[in-house]
Amino acid sequence: MVSINIEYKDVENKLLILYLINRLELPMSRAQIVDFIMQKELMDYFTLEQTLAGMAEAGLLEAVVETDAQDVNTTRYLVTGEGLTMLEYFEGRITRPVRLLINQYIEENRGKIKKDFENVANYFPNVDNNEFKVKCGVYEDNRAIIELFVSVDTREQAKLIQANWRTNASELYTKIIEALTSDGENA
To answer: Is the sign of the CA dihedral 21, 96, 55, 73 positive or negative?
Structure first.
């Protein structure tokens, strides 16, 4: 009888996380998920860590690791198609009070989380060829305005591109659009 309760709680925890990320409609950092779950005392830290890892391994969440200018890694989670299917089938099993807690959190924090996500610049080491891949982007309303991927040879170059994008994204976006839409006579 105990294993049934544990398995049900495990499913409930997964649904809670899927519902949270799906309602936000943006990738959530591991820290944002931990903050919410721990603040609301919805599960303990170790269960949460185990659940996130298991969901990523099972293909319910996609875990994307980003590295900032100070070499700090941030893991962001997105709901996969498989995770969305699971949520659609079992969303009714999430209790009304928990759904209300999540909905209130989303309403109060969407702007802050969205702002953190709108202007993105991260780099990833490419172990296959000892290069660094830099991803720069500007997002609005969950759609990419621009995404730029650049491969560079050193971590220092990657950090410089990252810092410049974060500081000057709107100016760089404008210059790129002007260059791409010019007729070539003024270039």
So the answer is: positive
